[in-house]
Amino acid sequence: MITGQGIVKTFKQRGNILGSREVRALRGVDFAIPKGGAASFIGESGCGKTTLGRIIAGLESYDEGELVIGDTAMSELKHKQRQPHFRKIQLIHQDPYSALNPTRTIHQTLHAPLSLRAKQTGRSKKWIEERAAEVLSLVGLDAGTVLARYPHQLSGGMRQRVVIARALTVDPEMLVADEAVSMIDVSLRLGILALLKDLRERLGVSVLFITHDVATARYIGGDGELYVIYRGQVVERGPVDTVIADPVHPYTQSLLSAIPVLHGLEQPGEQPVVPLEPLDQLLDDTGCLFTGRCPFRGERCAGERPLLQVTEGVPQEHACFYPERRSVIARPLSEV
Ligand SMILES: Nc1ncnc2c1ncn2[C@@H]1O[C@H](COP(=O)(O)OP(=O)(O)OP(=O)(O)O)[C@@H](O)[C@H]1O
Questions:
Q1: Alpha-carbon span 335 to 327, nearest angstrom
Q2: Residue 12 CA, closest ligand 1 atom number
């Protein structure tokens, strides 16, 4: 089990002559990903989901809160002591080409982590070769065909499979897939998603799926939880199908109905459809973070920040003073 409690992260961005500015990437995020389970973080670009994934994988620090891996709170450990814990969590990011060293063959790419592991566990050279073939077979690649090749000699889909195979060399407990198919040819995407699903089932590895596409989140982690993130805050959280079938937060409804407009929602009165403008983290920080874009805002929204909570009659957690089920008509992919 990996849990986060109240994770806060602020970046200082170099600004203009007026000085630097602070970007609140995460504003106190809680999450729990069970062993062998799945969770998906969704939200539009800039909402903080990649930052959260990098924190979970140990690649980014956080300012406040606690990250607990298994039974161990990371704040109690020194930097070096955290490494074995973070090794259990492997990040698969969107660009497999930049993740692989172009001057190394696939054999060399897999050999490096495997020989380290062999050294630590007193295993033989033969084991390294066998294990390399084994991890490649787990991701659907034939060792005889790919080991001698360089990354540029493989398709995008094959490269992403090699990245996943390399992650498997350390026997991870969790894979963090950050938009893992977005840079891969459309025809090869389903194969990678099916592979991640298969690894969950065969190896019991848990998968954290970071995406802006709810359909892929549902495909891999349909039995897990969906976290909808808006400007660094989780605004809705619950079982994937519950949130998709009956979203109660207007932001989730807009995400599901089709980015970038609230499409398919019945608008009250003459209120115009609200386009989702690019996120600006410097927008007014008082009250509900979605107020400025919300067609359903009420009296309390501008002055008070709703926290994630459960209210009567709503099965999922939400951060809205006026949660209401609204039927969302998702646009077919062909129209997006
Ligand atoms: N290293 C950094 N330095 C400064 N600001 C950063 C850094 N990393 C992220 N940010 C800012 O933090 C906010 C959250 O970014 P993050 O990449 O986590 O969002 P995201 O939802 O994953 O977006 P995307 O889907 O585009 O990757 C953004 O405003 C981003 O500009």
A1: 19
A2: 4
Beta-strand pair 233-239/225-230: antiparallel
Angstrom distance (rounded) from CA 178 to CA 160: 12
Q: What is the pLDDT of residues 15-66, one digit of tens each?
A: 666 667 788 899 999 999 999 999 999 998 888 999 999 999 999 999 999 9
Task: Specify the residue for token string 């692989």.
Answer: 100
Residue by residue, DSSP assigns 137-177 as: HHTT--HHHHTT--GGGS-HHHHHHHHHHHHHTT--SEEEE
Nearest CA-CA partner of 206 in 44, 335, 40: 40
Nearest Cα to Cα of residue 73 among 7, 23, 136, 120: 7
List b or e across 129-154, with b for residues whose CB sees 16 or more CB atoms inside 10 angstroms: bebbbebbebbbbebeebbeeebeeb
The average pLDDT across 100-113 equals 96
Q: Are 34 and 58 in contact (CB under 8 A)?
A: no
> Residue 67's pLDDT is what?
97
Atom of ligand 1 nearest to the CA of 210: 22
Any atom of ligand 1 within 6 Å of the Cβ of 53: no
Tokens at residue 270, please? Answer: 């003459």
- Ligand 1 contact via 46 beta carbon (within 6 Å): yes
Nearest to 174 by CA among 221, 230, 108: 221
Q: Is the complex ipTM higher than 0.85?
A: yes
Position in ligand 1 atom list of the atom nearest CA 281: 29
Asked if residue 260 has a cis previous peptide bond (ω within 30° of 0), the answer is: yes
Specify which residues 261 forms β-bridges with: 275
Q: Containing H/E element for 254? A: helix 250-257
Q: What is the chain's alpha carbon radius of gyration, rounded to the nearest angstrom?
A: 21
Q: Output the residue whose Cα is nearest ligand 1's atom 7.
A: 11
Task: Check pocket membership of 59 for ligand 1, CB cut-off 6 A.
Answer: no
Measured distance CA(256)–CA(327) in Å, rounded:
10
CA of 51 to the centre of ligand 1 (A): 6
Closest Cα to atom 6 of ligand 1: 11
- Ligand 1 center to 232 CA (angstroms): 10
